[in-house]
Protein 1
Amino acid sequence: MALSAISPSHAAGKAGQFGLGFELGDPTGFNGKYWLTSKNALDFVVGWNSWGYGRSVYRNGNCYNGNFRANNPDLCYDSRVDGYGYGWDNFHFHMDYLVHRFDIIKASIPLPLYYGAGVQYEYRKYWEDISWLGVRGNFGIAFMPTSIPFDFFFELAPVMFILPAPIFDLNGGIGARFWF
């Protein structure tokens, strides 16, 4: 309530308005959105992707043997034990151009469905340092109350990495933003 009193109320799709918040999921990180028009916006996340976190990833088949793994730490990597997977060992950035449809769901509070496309970059440290670059789609729904300067969202994003090799991935998350 204190934030509502010191900030202008959130207006759904107001050109020039900027929101900053946090997204949980895959990726997890800081999320920003900038309205270009009343229906189009740029959206970005800077954070980390959980790819490989909590999974055993061994580049040498002998690593499944506990004694071999203990005696060959340079050959055997286990994200559950070695602690890789989150933080700057696994950096994520994406930016999407989004189109919002406020006319599909009729409600007293704006609930736009949105879709768009963008680019995604990831730096992943597991067996070796690798940078990934790909294209992505984005589909989601936002809950945009006009009485408070926050919005909440859920989205899914199929990703097709092109470099260093073609591979498909799926991102998704929930989040909230404060509007300035």
Note: The chain has a mean pLDDT of 81.
Protein 2
Amino acid sequence: MRLRVAFLGLGVVIAGVGIALFLTQFLIKTPPAVTASATSNSTNGLPVVNVTLTTVAAAGTGPHPNWVAYLNDSGDPSTYINAPANSVIHMTINQQDTPTGLRNEYFGLVRGTIDGSMKVNGKTMQAIDPTTAAHTFTIPDLGVSVPLLGVSADQKGNPPQNVVEFDFKVPGPGLYRWQCFVPCGAGTLYGNGGPMQTLGYMAGELVVS
């Protein structure tokens, strides 16, 4: 009888530890935020701030090291962005992943940026071939969507990457959800699960204050 009680108690302890780890590592844990850095520049009278992210085929760290992810300057998966209200974000994305392609060709167009364009490795572009997209940076509530050109198999560099730059206006305070619209969740239903649905990987939040 005492042995049964001991095993029962041990089981309760193990279950409690497991639940605590699940809560702290998956449900409660929040990826680090990327805070826009101030500059001395202005656009149409609005201050310009800088945000830099990197897209990779595998996060390499965190609870899902094999998931595709956006990374911050420290190399950690991060899709939380803090920016000041009524500003212009100059976004730089170092795109290091290969193409997956878009199911909806609409997302091959640049939308919602200042001048309706982006720069890819210094070249101004308004769209890319939908089959060459690796990811998108899309904020539906702000009408912003930028396709990220995938790295080709023979592309040079260490690591090979396409540097994508664009500017967009940030309105008043609020919380704006953003995500990738390329089905890049390998191994999930239609590629739309896993990292596609998880904050810190291919889904994020723009916090404007």
Note: The domain at 32-208 is CATH 2.60.40.420 (Immunoglobulin-like).
Protein 3
Amino acid sequence: MDNIEKVQIFIDGGNFHHLVLKLIKVKELNFDFDEFAKFLANNREITNLGKRFYVGTVREQLNNLKSKESMAEQIKFLARLRVVGWETKTSKLRLRDEKVIIDERTKNYKDILSKGIIYIEYQRFREKGIDVKIATDLLVGAIDNKYDTAILVSSDTDLIPAIDLIRRRFNKKIEYIGFSIINETDGDKDVRPSQAMISRTDIQRVLVKSDIEKFIQKTLI
């Protein structure tokens, strides 16, 4: 009997949210991640604790009802994943001050500069350490021979050093899942797979909107 290929699945939740779910206006609670995992495995064996989801935790903000609702929703979502055997790992979302310089890369930059505006400052939540957690688990899984192929749902190029080491030293395969989705409201923001990830992985699969829509649940369950 032929040996069945062993796989583990690593989903960067924040990356998946911004590249896919946000674009097609679907919440995590309405997406069937377990069926999605089976689709990605494609009849290969998902090993014990081989379904892994990583995300920054939503934090409640003072006098902000939406943040409270988002936090409750995320807690419910992660609990559902754990019930069906997912390993979930989180990190804190940190509020950071960011600055955008107005120059030729900015649309209508001449009009903006003419009004005396040379930069825009804003606050944004950023994940801290998710890429480190994914890289660590990828390496540990390779060292402990937990998988033949790691299926990576992330376009974060910070993972490339870990990918290179796993392929070179441990002779494991990395399968990159990228996305090609048209932004119907802004063509400049179409989602495309990462060419850097494509060039540094063994297997590449690019999913389109119709691939994703199969896993949308119409009602919460």
Note: The beta strands are 6-12, 45-57, 87-101, 119-127, 149-153, 173-179, 203-207.
